[in-house]
Structure formats: C-alpha cells, structure tokens
Amino acid sequence: MKFAQLSVFLLAFVFALVSVAEAGATQTVRFNKDRSGVSTWFNGHDLKAVACYGDLMGNSHVNAADGWHIGAVHMAAYKGGEKSVCFECAKVTVGHRSIIVRIIDDCAACKPNQIDLTASAFKALAPLSKGVVKTSYRFIRCPSSGSLLKWPKSPAVRRS
Fold this sequence. Notes:
The protein is α/β, with parallel strands linked by helices. The protein has helices spanning about 1-25, 50-55, 80-85, 120-125, and strands at about 35-40, 70-75, 90-95, 95-105, 115-120, 135-140.
C-alpha cells in the first residue's frame, strides 16, 4: 500500500515539475499564422556571439553583421526554447513595408510577440529614431536563394 501511495506521489510531483517548467513557455512556432507585436532594433556589441550558433552549434565566435536581416526573440517564451525558434524565418510587416528576417539570437529582455531586429532590418520598415514600432509578423519557410536572403546560409543544427 505504501509503495502505491509513494508511486502516486512521485508521479504527481514529476507532473507538477513539468507543468512549472513549461508555464513560462507560451508561444509556439506556427507557420503562416499572423501575430501582432512590436519590433525594436539592436546593433554593436549585441551582434556578438549570437545564441543560435553558440548554444546549438558550439560556435560562440559567430558575430552577426549589421547588414544581415536577422532578429532576436525571447526564446524562453517558446515551447521547445532555442531548438524550436533558432534559424526560423519571420516576415515582419509595418504598414505596407515587409522584410524577412532569420531568428538567430535570444533577446532575454523582449516580451512575447516582440522581435528585436538588426538596425538594417529595422530601417527597411521605419526610421531608427522611432525605436519601437507596432508590427505584424508570421513565421515562414526561409527562402534558400534570391535577393531576400540577407543572412548566412543555414548551418547544420546540432539537436541534442
């Protein structure tokens, strides 16, 4: 009898731990689903040692270039964390202007539905002086070639 009670207790405890661990993760990457949010911009030292290359690929020496159209999101807000968001693409729109960015960095200070863009990506949507703009965005399949490709080619992601 005590073994059965202990088993039930342990099962409930493990379930509670899993629930708490995923409680902060509310977002999922769903392709072609429109979302409303905001975008901000970053440059300089924030372009160094981008998370997706360092954490998933073991190469923390990859620095993004400001000319790349890349974005950063708060990866802990996504179910599956970095593994679900890294190297995905998003089409970000402000009014009638749109760009495609590749998500390759973490923005721990970002709120859900916020994409932090490189300065060059942000400038394609609004003047840098705006700082924060209301956007709509959707995750899309990344283009593999053409003039929209403004980031390095996809690396082989180490999924452990």
